[in-house]
């Protein structure tokens, strides 16, 4: 007789899977956390639970015993509207982040408006700021239709493509060029879905930022999580209540359900505060980097530098900490740190940890040891696309005008026919307008940065257009490098990150040819079909 005959049918494994809808995020987190502390099913937990009991549970296990993993279970959706591009880049700089931002490729940013910071009594800086922003938007308004017309002339509509699809595709390509003129002050909007743990660190990080807009954004995120959420069903549900008017009791019950106040994370995020660790360590590292690099001008560096591993782990950590507070290439900083005494290297590492509190996560710079380190110098607009790759560690240097800017000339725009590379700005007659607007923005940013008023000086960064270069260190394994090279080199992509992905592949090919040959990369220098999406 088989052993199966001794198994009672009731005891056989009968897996059940069901989706859960309508539970408040913290209540759902409580119910899921109870799996580790109770034999109750999910249905039983959710039926017996209340928001009050959830708060009691979280106060006990989350705050008293440090079970922060519970916050991973509460996911919250936010709409963040009318924030600057600068603020958006800093907001989304979380390794555990999901969301979508308004696209500079598919939307015209002329109607978006722009952020105007508080200049205090410095009216001269305020006037220069407004004048510069208006000039950038005027150039953007001129460049978009001019480049679109040049594209129409060069790339005729094939018979197999509908005219509206043709126009939409070429307009996106025109925005790809014009977006270089958008200042970091330009308004955007985004949606994010994050768990409460990520939200807590995000809010704390924003509250610790020197820019007033970012601190205000941190406060608003905390208030949105702990205060009443917007109910998507409230307006449409009123029609249902009206239909049930004949039965007052039923109508009242429906109204109560539809108007019930929901607070998505009233407990998990309420104590998020500015981080002394971030505030003080940022100042310490800025001073240390300035002292070490005081007599070293910023070295020339390629678009992509795959920095070979020759240093110790201690030197890598110290170099990365300094890199995060400087504008120099990683290779240059690494070589300087390598020549320091071991005791000095240890002191730099200690700078990154000595102010760390009991519940502070160590700085991202301590995520060291990855096999591949790409030091990338590219325009901010293209970086925003690369920024989405979160299966790697990204160390981003501060915004600055010191690294110059990119102009999408023939070297950056690939050939679209047998005639060779395209200089769309020259063909459309707006190259001078484009460059003069960006140079004026950099000059104005520099002038405002030298202002004696601290608030005015901090506001200078908002004038930097997306053409401005930014340096970032991407640390990853081979699988992630393969993924980025294949995805971002595809013909449908923006030429800025296509060029970066191609250079990443070439660097891999030089250092690891036996592995690089398996990457399905698209040659950036080859002719492409601009209508391919």
Task: Describe the structure in your own words.
The chain has 21 helices and seven strands. It is of the alpha+beta class and 533 residues long. Among the domains are: 19-73, no CATH class; 228-259, no CATH class. The protein has a four-stranded antiparallel β-sheet with strand order 4-5-7-6. A three-stranded antiparallel β-sheet has the order 1-3-2. The chain starts with 24 loop residues before the first helix and ends in a 17-residue tail after the last helix. The relative contact order is 0.12.
Give the gist of this structure.
This protein is of the alpha+beta class. It is 47% helix and 9% strand. It is built from 21 helices and seven strands.
DSSP E strands, number? 7
- Helical element count? 21
Question: End-to-end distance, in Å?
Answer: 63 Å
Q: Sketch the topology as an H/E string, one letter per element.
A: HHHEHEHHEHHHHHEHHHEHEHHHEHHH
Q: Label the overall shape.
A: globular
Mean pLDDT: 87
Main β-sheet: number of strands, strand sense, barrel status? 4 strands, antiparallel
**What gyration radius follows from the Cα positions, in whole Å?**
27 Å
Structural class category: alpha+beta
Widest β-sheet, arrangement of strands: 4-5-7-6
Helix content: 40-55%
- Proportion of strand residues: 5-15%
Low-confidence stretches: none
